[in-house]
Design a protein that fits this description.
Elements (H helix, E strand, L loop, with lengths): L2 E5 L7 H12 L5 E3 L16 E3 L8 H4 L7 H6 L8 E6 L13 E6 L4 H4 L1 H5 L9 H18 L5 E4 L2 H11 L3 E3 L19 E4 L8 H11 L3 E4 L5 H7 L4 E5 L6 H6 L4 E3 L7 H8 L4 E4 L4 H4 L6 E4 L4 H12 L5 H8 L4 H25 L1
Parallel strand pairs: 1-2, 1-4, 2-3, 4-5, 5-6, 6-7, 8-9, 9-10, 11-12, 12-13
């Protein structure tokens, strides 16, 4: 059986790319099709893969310019010739689901989220501070992308959602059912530490919808140490906003991150995530999570057991949650045991089950015809 993988773009590491790594480990001979690939931004492991890019690979400074090429992504993915494959697995939060496959090919789409900026435009842009002059042409572009995405959504044979909230969005926007398979978390990399520091931690890209600004303002007000791991276009603005107790660590190696998480008082997730792998990694260290009560946090966190969920997405709401956690005595072993239900082995087993059923169903339909 010939298998191909498809991913939106390989321009920075995130939770979606961790999913791609496991999918590639499951099908190591499969080529990976993507719009653009920045080898310097990705782990060295990717250099050993068969990565096939679109014409967007020719973009200069891809990490900075790819957002300006939004109208061209549909054409980029439709230009791939996938006629020689029996199974195509796409990993998509925007464009990868739009590939064209022939009738004999089964297309399974692991959906991190329906195209956020097309279907939830206002909420996505509310913290972007875009100039007024940009909004009218952007409205035209998002209308075009929304229309294309609705058409492209019908090309998928089997949707797999990464959380309950994404499954609801697939049903709402694409009118399609889905199987829920939570993303893989390498829980074995994380252990409980006998020593806990005085700091809280976040691991995140610095983009507006992640709401790092809430955490920075809240911890600056509380005067409690906060360490932020990651990079992104909002980072300089956050540094200007932060007090001396907020430390920006930039990118931290995979080897150093487990200990950094294990010694934190708690992990902070103030934005609405579609799933959120890093908080589960913190749980795997036995550390509690303070999370906004929406999205993937409702699947991964148990209020009062693995951490604290706050329902008012404000600085006051986050401060209150931190104070509440300070008074709780949560059990690290229980937190860790819950995290292990999201282990990579569970993901592999569930994904292979969905893929096998999809292939069997499509094979049966062909035989009936």
């Amino acid at each position: 059986m010939k298998v191909a993988l498809v991913h939106d773009f390989l321009l920075q590491m995130g939770g979606a790319e961790k999913v791609v790594e496991v999918l590639h480990a499951m099908f190591p001979e499969a080529p990976l099709y993507t719009s653009a690939y920045d080898a310097e931004a990705m782990p060295d492991l990717y250099r050993t893969w068969d990565i096939r890019t679109s014409f967007l690979q020719k973009l200069p400074s891809k990490r900075k310019t790819h957002r300006f090429a939004l109208p061209f992504y549909p054409l980029a993915f439709e230009s791939f010739n996938l006629s020689g494959y029996d199974l195509v697995i796409s990993s998509s939060s925007c464009f990868a689901k739009g590939i064209l496959t022939p009738p004999h090919t089964t297309h399974v789409c692991y959906t991190h989220a329906p195209m956020r900026f097309a279907w939830s435009t206002e909420s996505y842009l509310e913290n972007e501070n875009l100039p007024r002059i940009v909004r009218p042409p952007l409205a035209v572009i998002t209308h075009y992308l929304r229309t294309w995405d609705a058409v492209a959504s019908t090309r998928v044979d089997q949707y797999v959602a990464n959380s309950s909230v994404v499954a609801r969005r697939i049903r709402k926007f694409y009118r399609a059912p889905s199987e829920i398979v939570y993303p893989p978390v390498e829980t074995c990399r994380f252990q409980i530490s006998p020593q806990i520091g005085d700091y809280y931690i976040m691991v995140s890209r610095a983009v507006p919808y992640k709401r790092l600004d809430l955490a920075v303002e809240a911890f600056t007000r509380l005067k409690i140490p906060l360490k932020i791991v990651g990079s992104g276009r909002q980072m300089e603005a956050l540094k200007a906003q932060a007090g001396p107790n907020v430390e920006f660590l930039g990118r931290v190696s995979d080897a150093a991150l487990p200990e950094l998480m294990a010694r934190a008082r708690a992990y902070i997730m103030p934005g609405e995530e579609d799933f959120g792998i890093a908080p589960v990694e913190a749980n795997a260290c036995g550390r509690p999570v303070i999370a906004y009560a929406a999205g993937g946090a409702l699947d991964t966190q148990i209020d009062g057991v693995t951490g604290v969920l706050f329902r008012e997405q404000t600085v006051d709401g986050l401060c209150a949650a931190v104070r509440l956690l300070e008074g709780l005595e949560l059990k690290p072993a229980i937190i860790q045991a819950h995290a292990r239900t999201f282990d990579t082995a569970v993901f592999r087993q569930r994904m292979m089950s969905v893929i096998t059923k999809s292939l069997e169903r499509d094979s049966h339909e062909v035989n009936v015809l």
